[in-house]
Design goal:
The complex is a heterodimer.
Chain A (H helix, E strand, L loop, with lengths): L7 H15 L3 E5 L9 H6 L4 E3 L4 H13 L3 E7 H7 L1 H9 L6 E5 L2 H5 L11 H6 L5 E3 L4 H11 L6 E4 L21 E5 L4 E5 L4 H13 L4 E5 L2 E3 L3 H11 L1 E9 L4 H11 L4 E7 L9 H10 L1 H12 L4
Parallel strand pairs in A: 1-2, 1-3, 3-4, 4-6, 5-6, 8-9, 8-11, 11-12
Antiparallel strand pairs in A: 5-10, 7-9
Helix pairs in contact in A: 1-8, 3-5, 9-13
Chain B lengths: L3 H25 L4 H18 L14 E4 L5 H10 L40 H15 L5 E6 L6 H13 L4 E7 L2 E2 L2 E2 H4 L5 H7 L3 E6 L3 H12 L6 E6 L22 H10 L5
Parallel strand pairs in B: 1-2, 2-3, 3-7, 6-7
Antiparallel strand pairs in B: 4-5
Helix pairs in contact in B: 1-2, 1-3, 1-9, 2-3, 2-8, 4-5
The chains are: A alpha/beta, B alpha/beta.
Chain lengths: 316, 276
């Protein structure tokens, strides 16, 4: 794959700068993570609006709660797992429970995001953890400009927001400026209603390619981007399931707790369908190049197409 | 100088705070009485003297903030809020009951006048530091006060926040350590080994004071002295007595969380000048 790169880290920074140009309540809380998102241009323009917590994520999150309670709108960006695991309790008890408007941006999400760093920096549990915490909005934009759009779209919504981003080596999926509508699924391709392919994030181009491959083989897939995991567009998803009846979820996350689980819940409660979940099969990844890792762990274009064929073959 | 009338008034308010603690725990059948008693004088000094607050404007942006990091001592705080007029004192007796705005541990969105949600130990210094830095960014001149326990100093997050606040020279942040020498499982010396407390804060870049946490003159002077320091946050290590004010609670750590019998209630109220 040699698509144009649109860094999600830069997308976050650009979104933050665009907000800070317009309003003076935007602050960046760093846990020695400013440089991770190449935040120097923000620091140069607004040094007083950067709060450095040190390599101390729990401190950063609890401080952000204090900042938000005093009328500021903090954005805390650091590694997805150091946030959602090390500072999980602070995200829950001090931010989500009192409905603080803190915005979290988790980098290195998934195998693709963590790639060569290995499992300690490769986070496949973040969505599952946050999905169980009441009050969180969870957003998984597909590329850099979509991250920027998600930052802009979510700045004023109630309660905390989590935006899942990567390493900075993401492919373009959407043209710049494509709006990000929180809480709504987006149908990216509709070859037919033989099977629905639900996805989000950095695997989206792979899913689109698999749909093309299936189409050439006479199988009509509908590709659905579920960029808002919470609140989930249950109605929109149920409508797709009503049409298709067979579904595959593809996510760079553990299949437990993330998109696959969310779609399974809709299937169980609203619209019966047959489902296969692709993603990490409740196991850890390893160091490697991002595309190699997605291929090895079951998210290659042929694997996605094959999963679609298999799920359809379960037709009675 | 702090005149004796000011001190006498605070001593009377503190007896009221302690009577409320006993009432709440006895009438509602739950709560942490002795950790509330050890912090009662500091909380009384803050709410009835030191804090720049206006109960008719709980959302006033320029108000001083208070964070009860040892959230289980909230009966003392709820009493102070009620007696300052944020809500009717009768509502104190709804503590920990369903549909009450008084949660078992402080929850700011529900309780009028409450600045911070706490309860899980170790977090209050970070939350208070965030508030203190927000004042700097927003060019407001309020101050932030935090009370932590001494056993609570076992939480690593306290020291993350201490390092950060010292580095940030957050001089509008004052932390009281309620040094009652006990935690749930025994003395802090037995369980954690938190001493020496002052040296730890000092080494993290804090102005550090040691006082008797039941002496209002010392409490108020320490607060004033912290205001004069412009390049460091202040930690006030307050020697306190767990259960202070009720003789049979002192030295008996079962009162960390225990409910009074009718006889104990009567004796406690008598010692606190109750049923007046």
């Amino acid at each position: 794959m040699s698509a144009e790169m649109v860094s999600t880290r830069i997308g976050f920074r650009e979104g933050l700068i665009a907000l800070a140009e317009k309003r003076d309540d935007i602050v960046f809380v760093s846990t020695d993570s400013l440089k991770v998102v190449k935040g120097e241009p923000f620091l140069q323009r607004w040094p007083e609006r950067v709060i450095e917590a040190g390599i101390a994520e729990a401190n950063g999150v609890a401080m952000a709660a204090g900042l938000a309670s005093a009328g500021l709108r903090p954005f805390l960006c650091t590694y997805a797992g150091f946030l959602t695991m090390r500072a999980c309790e602070q995200m829950r008890t001090f931010v989500a429970y009192p409905r603080m408007k803190v915005r979290f941006v988790g980098v290195n999400a998934g195998l693709f995001g963590g790639n060569r760093e290995g499992v300690s920096h490769q986070f496949i549990e973040d969505i599952g953890i946050l999905r169980t915490i009441p009050g969180f909005t969870i957003l998984c934009p597909a590329d850099g400009d979509q991250v920027k759009q998600a930052v802009l779209a979510s700045v004023d919504i109630e309660g905390p927001v989590y935006i899942r981003i990567g390493s900075g080596r993401e492919e373009r999926v959407f043209p710049d400026g494509t709006p990000f509508e929180i809480g709504k699924i987006r149908i990216l391709k509709e070859y037919g209603s033989d099977v629905a392919l639900f996805c989000h994030g950095f695997v989206t181009n792979r899913v689109l390619a698999a749909a093309d491959e299936l189409s050439r083989a006479g199988i009509g897939a509908t590709v659905v981007e579920v960029h808002t995991i919470k609140p989930l567009d249950t109605e929109g998803i149920a409508a797709v399931l009503t049409r298709c009846g067979y579904a595959v979820t593809i996510e760079d996350h553990n299949i437990i707790g993330g998109l696959g689980s969310a779609i399974a819940e809709v299937i169980a409660e609203s619209q019966p369908a047959v489902l296969t979940r692709l993603g990490l099969q409740d196991r850890y990844g390893e160091s490697g190049f991002p595309d190699e890792l997605l291929d090895k762990y079951g998210m290659s274009v042929p694997a996605i197409a094959e999963a679609a064929r298999e799920v359809i073959s379960k037709k009675k | 100088m702090i005149d004796s009338e000011r001190i006498r008034r605070l001593e009377e308010k503190a007896r009221q705070t302690r009577r409320d603690i006993v009432e709440m725990v006895y009438r509602t059948g739950d709560g942490h009485p002795s950790p509330s008693m050890s912090a009662a004088d500091i909380i009384t000094a803050l709410y009835f003297d030191a804090l720049a607050i206006d109960p008719s404007r709980p959302d006033w942006e320029g108000r001083d903030r208070f964070v009860l990091s040892k959230g289980h001592a909230c009966p003392a705080l709820y009493s102070a809020l009620a007696r300052r007029g944020y809500f009717p004192p009768e509502e104190l007796l709804t503590l920990r009951f369903m549909d009450s705005h008084l949660q078992g541990h402080p929850y700011a969105p529900k309780t009028l006048g409450l600045d911070a949600t706490t309860g899980s130990l170790g977090n209050g210094v970070s939350v208070g530091l965030g508030m203190a830095l927000a004042a700097r960014i927003r060019k407001l001149d309020y101050r932030v006060y935090v009370i932590t326990g001494d056993g609570e100093l076992g939480e690593g997050l306290i020291w993350e926040a201490a390092m950060c606040a010292g580095h940030q020279k957050a001089s509008n942040l004052t932390v009281f350590v309620d040094n009652n020498n006990y935690q749930s499982g025994g003395t802090v010396g037995e369980v954690t080994g938190v001493y020496p407390i002052e040296d730890k804060w000092r080494s993290f870049g804090w102005n550090t004071l040691s006082i008797d946490g039941h002496d209002f003159t010392q409490i108020l002077e320490a607060i004033e002295s912290a205001k004069r320091v412009t390049d460091k946050p202040t930690a006030i290590v307050a020697k306190t007595i767990k259960g202070k004010g009720v003789s049979f609670m002192i030295g008996d750590n079962t009162w960390h969380k225990r409910v009074y019998t009718a006889a104990e209630y009567a004796q406690a109220m008598a010692e606190l000048g109750g049923q007046q």
